[in-house]
Amino acid sequence: MKTKPKAKKTAAPAKAAMPTTTHWKALLSCVFGVAVFLFLYLGQSHVLIYHEWTQMFQFTDAYFLDRIVVPGGFARYLGEFLSQFFRTPWLGAAIMSLLLTAVQWLSWAVARRDGAGQAAFALSFLPALVLLYFMGDADVAAHALCDALLGAA
What is the pTM of this model? Predict the structure, then answer.
């Protein structure tokens, strides 16, 4: 009597485990960015406009060389370039919220690199919140955020 060869049972491919911790962290960072945008656009747009009024950015070689030769000059040049868009409040708020969210993400990356645990994610919002507090003061130059961002990178 002939027997049918038994078919080999292959295991169903295992579903890859989804890293759920990254999803809620990314979502929380996006919520932070939206909250910062709303705060700056609805409550602090006058400060953004004031920052734009106190800057005079020029697209000349002499202006670039004048800024770049001093320590921190590139960050100042970049901050002055970005602050020219603060005349339009929603655009200024969008730029600031993106930069502050980048500061938060870079803080988290530094904490992870240094071996901080998962609980350190909440602490990664502190540098961005402190910068937001200082940027609410009209006398703080707009390039301070670029200084912090380039310093963290």
Answer: 0.73
